[in-house]
Design a protein that fits this description.
By secondary structure, the chain is mainly α. Helix content is about 25%, strand content about 0%. The chain is built from two helices and no strands. The longest helix is centred in the middle third of the chain and has 8 residues. The chain is elongated.
Length: about 45
């Protein structure tokens, strides 16, 4: 199974060009921990 080495494209046309004949893609949306301030004012 191949994997895309890029995670960002300038536009959809460039993404389709890079994918070539690929019919289905899988997007990993694994959550990652983020440190956030406890103070609601600082979070805004």
């Amino acid at each position: 199974m191949g994997a895309m080495p890029r995670s960002r494209f300038e536009n959809v046309k460039n993404m389709r060009k890079a994918l070539g004949e690929v019919e289905r893609i899988i997007i990993d949306v694994t959550e990652r921990a983020h440190r956030r301030p406890a103070d609601n004012e600082k979070q805004a």
